Amino acid sequence: MSAAIEIINLRKEFGSKTAVNDLNLTVNEGEIFAFLGVNGAGKTTTIRMLTGLTKPTSGDAKVLGYSILTQLDEVKKIGNLSPQETSVAPNLTVKENLEFIAGIYGFSKEISKEKANEMIELFGLEEVENSKAKTLSGGWQRKVSIAMALITEPKVLYLDEPTLGLDVLARRELWKAIRLLKGKVTIILTTHYMEEAQELSDNIAIMVKGNLMATGTLSELRAKTGKENLEDIFISIVEG
Amino acid sequence: MKSSVFAGRVSKEVTRDPLSYIFCLGFPIIMLAIMSLIDSSIPAQANMTVFHIYNLAPGMAYFGLTFLMLFTGMLVSKDRSTALLLRLYASPMKAINYVIGYTLPMIILGCAQILICFGAAFVVGLCQGYTFDIVKMLISFLMLIPSLLMFIGVGILFGSAVGEKAAPGLCSIIISAVGMVGGIWMDIDGLGGVIKDVAQALPFYHGVQLARLPLTNNYDSFGVHMLWTVGFGIIFYVLAVVIFTSKMKKDTK
User: Fold this and answer.
1) Contacts of residue A148 in chain B, CB cutoff 8 Å?
2) pLDDT one-digit tens code per residue, A151-200
3) B135 interfacial to chain A (CB closer than 8 Å)
4) What pTM value is reported for the model?
5) Partner residue facing A91 (CB), from B5, B17, B86
6) What are phi and psi of B240, to 5 degrees?
7) Which of A77, A148, B113, B158 has its CA 20 to 30 A from that of B56?
8) CA–CA distance, A198 with A218 (Å, rounded to integer)
9) Which residues of chain A have pLDDT under 70?
10) CA distance B144 to B151
11) Which of B236, B64, B65 has its CA nearest to residue B159?
12) Which of A 38-67 lie inside 8 A of B, CB atoms?
């Protein structure tokens, strides 16, 4: 399996605070890779650096061979992001939001319409496709947000806390949608829900205060800590 | 392509907000009607021409543009406070695509606003027994374009420079300034003194006068009014581009 992302000594400092401390890791193509950690662990900052939203203090990362320092335009073309917060155009309908993002990434009007219909079918958005985004519930907005990230056919998809604040049913629905993408797109996911990382990811990186504490598959982490469930594994690693 | 797609989204956001119609169209037209009523109540001996329909129409069209500035400022500042712009910052869009994307629909809306205001003035004029010269009205329309660009620039500038709560406040200061020293419903030349000095130092009075020139057939001060209006237009628009670009860089630092 070839590497989709290679992170090399990636570091971000905000004043005297180190948000990400010389991070090194590799994400394979087509896998779902979860960054797991509590608030302030550096998960979102890592995603922000990989998507060009934050400049690293030092180090580099290669996304499908393109450097985030010197080839950011290429990096932006091959990836897409669903941010933590609601990120839809409020007065546009679901369909218009999808077509809008497709257009921004250079798809023609006709292709944008076709792709919007594909996303509506994939994410089961038919019943809300003509509703204005601002009228949707949090769960629907998250689904739309992920569909907006996926419509541009990204090779790497970044999902920052995709189920934050959702109820159990909406979360399960969203997991189902994310699972459909497995193997087709490389997905980088940040979460602080153990169950979510366990359910969805092929590989997990546990971060604490900007430091990468452990990385591997769930079985590798189990073998490393001698614990069965991810919550115990996490606590064991965090508490050292 | 990216700019036009973004412009399409901006125009949908604005035209779907009912407040746009109330402030950008309803308010100037209502003011036009009220001021015309006031004009009809002023005795001819008072020789007060500021409320005459040929002076009022370009003045009200100019005043309407200040609400377009308010909407631009609100939209830019609101976008900056949401994750939508964060998502777009991660896309291949450049700062210039955003600025063009905000500007294009506002130009179209601004032009429509001026034409509707002039249309309403034409009807009011007919009711008062005054017939506008369509060609002169069109020239007046063209004279308002530099001011339209200036107000869009100010809107982008305020929306980029300050937050969602402060941007409307700053725009309101400009709206008040236009009301006070723009000479729309006050004869600035007749007042003189400090008020006149302040009015002449700012672009609003010149912008209003420039739009009035074709309808009053008095092109004496054309050069000064044009210079002030276009000059401030360029300054504010360039500042808007610079501030938006620097804020975008700061947001992604």
Assistant:
1) 87
2) 998 999 999 988 887 788 878 888 888 888 888 899 999 988 888 888 89
3) no
4) 0.86
5) B17
6) -60, -45
7) B158
8) 7
9) 1
10) 11
11) B236
12) 51-55
